[in-house]
Amino acid sequence: MHKDLVAALDIGGTKIAGALVDGGGELLVRAQRPTPPGGTGEQVMAAVGEVLVELAASPLWAAARAVGIGSAGPVDAKAGTVSPVNIPGWREYPLVQGVREHAGGLPVTLVGDGVAMAAAEHWQGAARGRANALCMVVSTGVGGGLVLGGELQPGPSGNAGHIGHISVDLDGDSCPCGGRGCVERIASGPNIARRALDRGWRPGADKDVSAAAVAASARAGDSVAIASFERAARALAAGIAATATLVEIEIAVLGGGVAKAGEVLFAPLRRSLREYATLSFVQGLEVVPAQMGTDAGLIGAAAACGDVRHARVARAGRRVRTPSAEGRPCP
């Protein structure tokens, strides 16, 4: 019998993934649905329900003790609601209540997707063994999570470390969040591609206009594509340096689709970071790629949940304080 089994959900603007995860971080059963584009709140929740129904069909479901959710944000862990910028149908949507109903009343823990990624990278990935880390998802959006003093710090609402909506350009473009010049508005995949297209970059015969296609052009020497990634790198560097100066992180871990661009992103990021992280106590800051890949959200959602947390703490020798949907630490 598998121990410390948790049902995990990773909810984003493109897909809704689910898994049954054991205490060692192994994904034993998987399910996935596309996030309905432009869907109503109930249509998106129906897709979440389909994922949970598929997981519940496994004989292992009977051993699941809880459900952990890592969702695009912002989230409100106290209220159990979500208002993801990239899921317009969900505004203060009662996600925890809906998941609990589909999961037969199991306890539910909700955190932002960046916090989930941080939990995964600190448990088994690039931030393992580090006491102070910022872990970032750079993809359709830009999110993040913090580990401080060896503990995951999701904050009272589950959003702490949400670096994507720090303003790094006071006169920059308006952001869907209501701010201006946010890191996400400059460094997310769609905005990298948008900026390249606006400045004359054109896709190849396959008509691919994604950030991955821009990255391929940059590797081939296209100056407009290179400039778009350099601009994204500067925005990320400014946000990372500000975070490091505020809370003295020692490492920044970048994952997500945009981070797969490799040195097209990381080389200018490290150069720009030297310009922004100038104080003595942040000059040694490391920036590294994430190691957990596309499963980070699921593993982190499980790690952020109390049932798996205890198994993890026994190995790591540290506690991880994570709010439940009611705002209390997980049992």
TrEMBL record:
Q: Which domain of life is it from?
A: Bacteria
One short Pfam family name for this protein?
ROK
Any stretches that span the bilayer, and where are they? none
Q: Would you indicate the residue range of the signal peptide? A: none
Its family?
A: Belongs to the ROK (NagC/XylR) family.
Task: Return the protein name.
Answer: ROK family protein
